Structures are given as C-alpha cells and as structure tokens.
Amino acid sequence: MKKDDSQELLVFNKEFTRQESIPSSGIERAIEIMQSGRLHRYNTTPGEISETSLLEKEFADYVERRFCAALSSCGSAIYVALKSVGVKAGDKVLCNAFTLAPVPGAIKNAEAVPIFVEINENFVTDLDDLEKKAIESNAKYFLLSHMRGHIVDMDRVMDICHRHNITLVEDCAHTMGAKWAGKHTGTFGAVGCFSTQTYKHINSGEGGLLVTDDEEIAAKAILYSGSYMMYERHISRPSLEVFERFKKVIPNFSLRMSNLVAALIRSQLPELDKNVQRWNERYNIIEEELQDVSCIYIPVRSEKEEFVGSSFQFSLIGIETEKIKHFLSVCAERGIDIKWFGEMEPKGFTSRFESWEYFTKTSKLPKTSAILNGMCDFRIPLTFNLKDCKKIAMIIKQVCRELELCD
Ligand SMILES: *Cc1c(COP(=O)(O)O)cnc(C)c1O
Known about the structure:
The chain is an alpha/beta fold. It has helices spanning 24-36, 51-63, 74-85, 102-109, 127-137, 154-164, 215-226, 240-246, 259-268, 272-290, 321-333, 366-373, 386-402; strands spanning 67-71, 92-96, 113-117, 141-145, 167-171, 179-180, 183-184, 191-195, 208-212, 296-297, 305-306, 311-316, 339-340, 375-379. Helix 1 packs antiparallel against helix 9 (259-268), helix 2 packs parallel to helix 9 (259-268) and helix 10 (272-290) runs parallel beside helix 13 (386-402). The longest helix has 19 residues, at 272-290. Pyridoxal-5'-phosphate is lined by residues 73-75, 99-100, 102-103, 145, 147, 171, 173-174, 195, 197, 208.
C-alpha cells in the first residue's frame, strides 16, 4: 500500500557537515610531500616547481585568467585583493550587505569604510541601490560577494562599474566552478577570490586563490602573500621587472599556502566540473519538491546564471518570527539542520550586517533586514545522495503543513 507522505513522520539522520574523502591521488601526493619534508612552497630543489606553483598555474588556466596567487584563506585573499587594487585607509568600499563575516573582516583589515548595499528578494545585490550609493558616496571600489552562490546580473554590474569608474573585486567563495553567460565568476572584476575551506567547492581545510589579469595586481598580491623575495619561483606571475617596481614598498603579510594544502586542492580540481553537476542534481530535486509550497519562496535565477547548488536558500514569506523559530526547531528535531539569517545574534557561520559593530557607522538597510528575517539556508554536501535530498525537502514540506504555515 502506498503511504501518504503527510502521514508518515520522516526523520533524516545524516550530517550536514560531512564532506567527501580527499581523492586517493591527493592523499598519496600529500604523503610524498610529508615524506620529503618540503612543505613550504619555497623549499624546492634546484629546477623543481613547487606544488603550490603548479596549482596556481592550473587554477589560472581553469578560470582563464593570466595569474593566480595561492593564499592561506579566501578572507586573506580578499584582504590582499583590496590592498593590491589600491584601497587605502579611509577609502570607501561598496559591498552587498548579505555576506559572510570574513568579507566585512577583510574591509576592516584594509582599514576601509564599507558602504553596504541592499539585496533583493532573490538574495542578490539590488543594483539600483548599488548605483544610487555609488553616486552618493563616490566610492571607487565594489567588493561583490556572490553570497551562497547567487549571481547577480553581471552585465549590469559591469555597466555600472564602467560608468562610475569603479574597480570590482569578486568574492567567489561559493561560486568556484560557476559562470555568468559562460564566463567564470571571478573573471569579471580586476580580481577574483576563491576559497578552499572545508565547506566550499574544493576542500583543503583552509585555503584561498586570488586570480587577476593585471600584472601589477598580480605582483603586489604575490609580494603581500609573503614571497620572501623568491617570487621568481612562481610560474603564474608577471615578468620580474614588475616585481622590481614594488618589492621595496609592499610588505610581507605572510599569508602563503603550503604545498600540503596545494596537493589536496590539485587532486580535486579535475573533479570540480563533475561535482558541479552532482550538486545541481541535488539542488534541483530539492527545488522541485519545494516549488509548490505556498509559504516558501525560492529565488528566481537568470538563464545566464550557471550556478553551483552546493547549498539551498529559501524565504519563509509572511510568517512571524515565533512561528519561524518553531519551524526551525521542529525541522531540527527531524534531523534537518537549517540556518536562519533572521537570528539577530551572530551564531556559527551566520551573522547579519547589524552585528558588525566594529564599523563605527551603522547602516540602515530596511529591505535587506526584512529579507534576512525570513531567510533559511542549509548545506547540500555531496555525501547526500539524491534520495536524501528528496527526503530533506519532504520533511520541510511536511513541517510547513503540520504547523499550518501555508494556506
Ligand atoms: C567562506 C566564505 C569566505 C571566506 O572564506 P575563508 O576561506 O573561510 O576565509 C568569504 N566569503 C563568503 C561568502 C564565504 O562563504
């Protein structure tokens, strides 16, 4: 007999934080590197190209940019990117207000002043507000965070940047492997920054990759990363003459990547495009299942957006805070670990712009606040199979019905 899914109480019991194993080729290479003792990127034998340098070349080729610098994290890559494009203390940096804490952290680290921009109901930057604030503030930098993998209309972004002479830096922590109209994110702006932290699209624990086509930015980024004047050993770099110009004026921030980390990333890069497909299969199943739940709004995406569905976001619309909290706790009881951006206190990985009190000027963003109040989010690790994804969506749907959140 076929059971009605509204009667059977579904419970999920897999961990939302469990990633897949590192490919065996990566594990083997990591062991070789440990056996050699040559973990530092500049500890090479004559003529040897380090693991980290090889990775930089491979990643630059993958996204089709001229240069790549490997760093200790994406947060440090964003910081180095801001410094390398010329951001000075007190400079204004436009930034979408819906992002992760390392992004405002990088702005703070660069001693810049953020001008936060509203988002819209599809969780991307409100481009009318961007243009308005660009004019009002006269900011010359835009740090665009493709937060949770939602890619805004890049044609319009580039048009706004060109018209107002704004330098674009992209935070691609959730868009490694993603494209806009066939072009990789991170290659629209002057610089793109990627993360290989455990919960992103390639897992090396920690790690950041900075890409650019600009020779001066590349040389500065390598010097900032801490090259100990051994930048010659990089194979993804501009000519040595460019470094000559900057080597005495750019400090060493010691934010390098180690060969061990690079080995783990190198083994996963060839799998990335296949994994993008696997993520999207999972995302699509969840989306399909939740599409007809009237209290749930799933962001609409442009046809040009070739996203990576490694996490799922939706808005609970027209539901009061107490009911949302109840929904979250019932979901949690049934094994569904949902993060809620409505939470005013910073919690785990989730924080709101209102809680970044280290900036002296507070921002009022009524539209973004209202959207965050209903925004729910969960990860889709590849350790979940297609059936798991269907089950997660069915539980969410079941809880919505049970609590009578929908009509
Ligand atoms: C994870 C993340 C970062 C920072 O990455 P780390 O490598 O952890 O420093 C930046 N932006 C967004 C949107 C992120 O999710």
